[in-house]
């Protein structure tokens, strides 16, 4: 399946060569600003998350700063994280999704799920980055991430215990940036 805003005739000819390929035109659609989800005993209403993290949003909070390649990977991982069900942890390297842990009740469980997925598919996490849709209330996630080879972390910050994670990263030469924006998706 291929989806694009438009196609020229040459593109249609080439894309149509493959049997059973579906070619769709993407329409502009105005999405509602409120999202409504049903849940046990009620509903959840939340504002649509229109915020995408940019380089200008990043605040380096560790002694070690991320490299320009890590910044690109962090922003890429953050985009995936934003559009994935909370709680989520995303690993990326070279602007490629390595693995993710999603929809867990615990951020540590999401992290362990992402690590297990990476191992199952034989992906190397050395030099990869980690994104989280919410802050780390304890340093356990960055400790586990460092042990598997993560070198940089992006998260919103905002925990009253941020210093615990920052201190661990400083002691272990892991770069950490804060975005100031939580990307919960329920």
Structural class: alpha/beta
Residue windows where pLDDT falls under 50 for at least 5 positions: none
Order of helices and strands: EHEEEEHEEHEHEHE
End-to-end Cα distance: 27 Å
Strand portion, in percent?
Answer: 15-25%
Summarize the structure.
With 186 residues, the chain is of the alpha/beta class.
Give an account of the 3D structure.
The protein has helices spanning about 10-15, 70-80, 105-120, 140-145, 160-170; strands at about 1-5, 25, 35-40, 40-45, 60, 90-95, 95-100, 130, 150-155, 175-180. Helix content is about 30%, strand content about 25%. The chain has 5 helices and 10 strands, in the order E-H-E-E-E-E-H-E-E-H-E-H-E-H-E.
Key descriptive features of the protein:
single chain; 5 helices; alpha/beta; 10 strands; two-stranded parallel sheet
């Amino acid at each position: 399946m291929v989806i694009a805003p438009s196609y020229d005739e040459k593109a249609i000819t080439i894309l149509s060569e493959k049997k059973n390929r579906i070619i769709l035109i993407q329409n502009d659609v105005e999405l509602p600003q409120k999202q409504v989800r049903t849940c046990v005993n009620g509903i959840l209403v939340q504002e649509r998350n229109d915020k995408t993290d940019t380089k200008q949003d990043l605040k380096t909070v560790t002694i070690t700063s991320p490299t320009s390649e890590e910044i690109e990977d962090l922003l890429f991982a953050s985009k995936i994280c934003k559009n994935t069900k909370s709680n989520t942890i995303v690993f990326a390297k070279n602007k490629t999704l390595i693995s993710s842990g999603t929809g867990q009740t615990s951020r540590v469980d999401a992290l362990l799920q992402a690590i297990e997925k990476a191992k199952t598919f034989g992906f190397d996490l050395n030099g990869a980055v980690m994104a989280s849709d919410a802050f780390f209330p304890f340093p356990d996630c960055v400790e586990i991430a460092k042990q598997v080879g993560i070198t940089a972390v992006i998260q919103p910050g905002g925990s009253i215990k941020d210093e615990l994670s920052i201190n661990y990263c400083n002691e272990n030469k892991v770069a950490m940036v804060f975005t100031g924006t939580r990307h919960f998706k329920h």
